[in-house]
User: What shape does this take?
Amino acid sequence: MPKTVILPPGTGTPIAPFSPGTLADGVVYVSGTLAFDKDNNVAFPEDAEAQTRQVLETIKSVIETAGGTMDDVTMNHIFLTDWSNYQTINKVYAEYFPGDKPARYCIQCGLVKPGFVVEIASVAHIGQKDGGKK
Assistant: This one.
């Protein structure tokens, strides 16, 4: 089964060997997404609301580049550094998933750089579309 790498317009160079997303057999797999600024530094250090919003906007851009919408998201993997941010993250999350909610899990862990508070990876089933670039 061939895969298509999904690179939204304006995608910067990742800090590790990965693609923002891949599309295979109608399923978009979005890599773990953090709130990076244009220079690959932490955007909005320790700000759970702003980071969650940026992360979800980035995920949205990957899915839309592939030809889908946030309504196509079926699973989210959420990683947070401190449970004290859980309610704030959920508040922003609910804005992006107002209807039927995707399945998800949420764990507390360390993230790749100090200052990050949330990382989200997503799976979206968009059907047989040819979005993105290879």
